[in-house]
Amino acid sequence: MTSAAHTGTLVRPFRALHYDPRKVDPASVVSPPYDVISPEMRADLAAQSPYNVVRLILPGPGQEGDAGALLQRWRDEGIVVAEPRACLYWLEQRFTGPDGVERERGGIIGALRLTSYDDGPVRPHERTMEGPKAGRLALLRAVRANLSPVFAVYDDPAQRAAAAVAPHRAGPPVLDLRDGDGTRHRLWRICEAEAHAAIGEAMAGAAITIADGHHRYETALAYRDERRAADPGADGDQPYDFAPVYLVSMTDPGLHLFPTHRVVTRVEEDDWIALPDRLTALWRLEDVPGDVDALYGRLATAGDETAVAIWRGAGTPGMLARLRDPDAAGRALPNASDAMRGVDVAVAGALVLGDLLGLDPDAVATTDRIRYRRRADGAAQVVAAEPPRTAVALLLRAPTLQDVAAVAQAGETMPQKSTFFYPKILDGMVFHRLDETA
User: Fold this and answer.
1) Which of 128, 227, 263, 272 could anchor a disulfide with 240, C-beta 3.0 to 4.6 Å?
2) What is the mean pLDDT of residues 188-211?
């Protein structure tokens, strides 16, 4: 089922639910998104406050109804209150990335019109799994509110949206806190009609690519379809036709993609030993002395060439592998677009994980032999912890934002765990109601 309102506003202000800062300390009630929370982290967050949002976003299996009742109780107690006006929000995050560089990223939080991927401006860049969506949909039915924003990027080379917001964030933010990683989050409320109009104009016709939160977006779509089917006579836009989104311009200087490395475990020793010889059929190899950081630094010099760094530990040098024949990417990915064939992680997945280590794409998606690490030294630690000559780390450069957008534009999705946007967007700042008009 598709939206009947493509000609309507793409991103609009909404009347949010939010914690009353007079009754709770905002820093004690926010949380990272549900999909990065371990059981230990959940317990720590819940201990910070009886009102921490983790109690809503991550209930126990089958306890989604309890989360709905809990949110209603917090509203009855005045812990969570409704914003009297329809507003947009500007979220600014100052952070130190995994590479040690300090950055600042800013974006707009608004209500995004839901459209199917085939029928609108919103495109995915990775595949989703059905299991998480089922649990998210049950929670959405119970709480009747979007608790977590989708993170998306859009093309605004002139930074018109940021310019429209600037005069309205001269005063103090409505929220200012630091999380456990040291990231400072500041949120401004933008309720002026002229700012809304300027932002809407900046967004008009923009292609939007989901960066993080595909499961949230697709769950919101499923919920919208359920509500429409139950109320076919509903007239005009309904709250469930929208979902909250954090939108960042692709030209924002603080928007950065970080790599995710792969470590293949339980490699047969004969395959481990033979790997360099097998690689030479398609790759030019260069031994790189020193530690894994030296190897990863060398990978950065590969320029436009398709390249991957190989770390096997056990006293062997690291190897920088550069693809000899660019046509090999086409042969390995015969049905892929040129955009996909230019992405290191896709080519390495086909030619190294597949041809040399025996893991086809289906196996990569389901195997327990692959460990994913954000840092090169973390990947090296996994190799060192495995029995000697049984693990191989593939160190990869992060795809560019242009790579991600081009793959999405081609109607394709990136390989599993190929993009890492940092920092995450905290839950608990604003909620999007699904039963009340904005």
Assistant:
1) 227
2) 90
C-alpha 147/C-alpha 86 separation (Å) is 17
Q: In terms of domains, do 226 and 332 share one?
A: no
Judge if 268 and 318 occupy the same domain: yes
Averaged pLDDT, 386-415: 90
Measured CA to CA, the distance from residue 237 to residue 9 in angstroms comes to 10
- pLDDT of 364 reads 74
Q: Percent of the chain beyond pLDDT 70? A: 96
- Give the DSSP letter of residue 426: P
Phi, psi values for residue 120, rounded to 5°? -170, -170
Count Cα atoms within 13 angstroms, Cβ side, for 158: 9
User: Is 5 inside any structural domain?
Assistant: no
What's the average model confidence in pLDDT over 215-234? 92
**Angle of helix 130-143 versus helix 214-230 axis, rounded to 10:** 50
The predicted-structure confidence for 62-100, as pLDDT tens digits, reads as follows: 889 999 999 999 999 999 999 999 999 999 999 999 888
Give pLDDT, residue 91: 97
Distance separating alpha carbons of residues 122 and 120, to the nearest angstrom: 6
Beta bridge partners of 283: 323
pLDDT greater than 70 at residue 23: yes
Residue 407 lies in a domain: yes
- pLDDT mean across residues, the chain: 90
| DSSP string across 45-67 | HHHH-TT-THHHHSPPTT-HHHH
User: In the Cβ-directed half-sphere of 431, how many Cα atoms lie within 13 Å?
Assistant: 26
Task: State how many domains the chain has.
Answer: 2
Whether the CB-CB separation of 378 and 179 falls below 8 Å is answered with: no
pLDDT digits (tens, 9 = 90+) for 93-146: 999 998 889 999 999 999 999 999 887 789 888 776 555 678 889 999 999 999
Q: How far apart are CA 334 and CA 361, in angstroms?
A: 14
Taking residue 93's Cβ as centre, other Cβ atoms within 10 Å add up to: 23
Tell me how far apart the terminal alpha carbons of the chain are, to the nearest angstrom. Answer: 23
- Angle at CA of residue 141, ends 139 and 143, nearest 5°: 65
CA torsion sign, 125 to 340 to 260 to 247? negative
Give the whole-angstrom CA distance, residue 275 versus residue 164. 55
When pLDDT is averaged across residues 257-270 and rounded to a whole number, the result is 93
> Is residue 2 scored above 60 in pLDDT?
no
Alpha helical stretches, state H, 92-204: 130-143, 160-165, 193-203
Gap between the Cα atoms of 240 and 135, Å rounded: 18
Residue 39's domain comprises 11-256+422-433
